[in-house]
Every structure is written in C-alpha cells, then in structure tokens.
Design goal:
This protein has about 160 residues and is mainly α. The chain contains eleven helices and no strands. The relative contact order is 0.07.
C-alpha cells in the first residue's frame, strides 16, 4: 500500500477555496509585534559587537536597533562581512554610508550602492567607482528608480469597458 495520496481535481479546488487568506506585511506585523527595545538589549548588542566571531558581529551590524556609535565601530571592523552588513542596513546613518563608499572592499561598496537610504552625492561617487560591479549596481538601482517613476496609477488599473 502506498502512502502517497492523490487528490481529485474537485478536492484540490475545495482546498484552494478554503485555504486561509494571505496576510499583508502590515497585518502580519500587527499580529506579531517586535519586542520592546530595552536597556538590556542595548547592553547585549554592545557586548556582541566585540565578539570574536564575525558572524555574531554581523548580526549586530544587521540590527535596526544598533546605536550610531556601534555602527561606526562596526563600519571599521576588519571583517568585510561585518562592514557589508553595516552598508546594507537601512538604519545606518548617512555619514557612515558615506565613509563606507570608500571602503577597500568592492562588496562593501556594492552594498552601499544598493542601500535604499544612500544620499545622492554618495551614489554619484559610486557611479564613478573603479569596480565595474559597483558601477553596474548603481546603474541598476537608477533604472529601478526610473521604472518606479514612469509607472502611473492609471497604467496599473485595468481598462474600463464601455
């Protein structure tokens, strides 16, 4: 006897009809709010930022709750992965992103280029980067922004029938 079950088309349609509705990101966030950020969590971030394991420092660099002084410390970390996590974190202050745009690592500069919150002057600098990859990322991001601006609400709506 096989343990494989084959559903009929009618059974599959019934399962589709009764599946739970998908939640939007906002609805999911409302159902599962982030825990409150406390002093003890801040102390933990400070402790973990000096851990010998770079993966743990990367976790601190990826946190939205990391304070500016830790971002600055982690932006100067010897590990490229840690600096990359600072570069891609949307909570990283602009001045730190500005300094990471001159990082010796092409990967870190690439993460700066795709960070949504990078100032325009930094993007102009990265557009002239010595790395073809970084320049390509800047160009790709500019194209995405262009496409976003050219889309109009009317184009997204279905045409009305007479």
């Amino acid at each position: 006897m096989s343990c494989i079950r084959f559903n009929t088309p009618a059974q599959r349609q019934a399962m589709r009809d009764h599946r739970p509705a998908m939640l939007t990101a906002e609805e999911a966030a409302a159902l599962h709010p982030a825990p409150e950020f406390t002093e003890s969590k801040l102390r933990r971030l400070r402790l973990l930022a000096s851990d010998p394991n770079p993966k743990i420092r990367e976790a601190v660099a990826s946190s939205y709750n990391t304070p500016e002084d830790l971002f600055l410390t982690l932006a100067n970390d010897p590990d490229e992965g840690v600096r990359g996590c600072v570069a891609k974190n949307e909570a990283t202050p602009c001045d730190i992103l500005r300094s990471l745009a001159s990082d010796r690592s092409e990967t870190v500069r690439g993460w700066v280029a795709v960070n949504y919150y990078v100032p325009a002057d930094v993007m102009e600098k990265l557009a002239k980067d010595r790395s073809r990859t970084v320049r390509s990322l800047v160009k790709w991001k500019a194209q995405l922004a262009e496409e976003d601006q050219t889309e109009t609400p009317a184009a997204a709506e279905p045409a009305l029938r007479p």
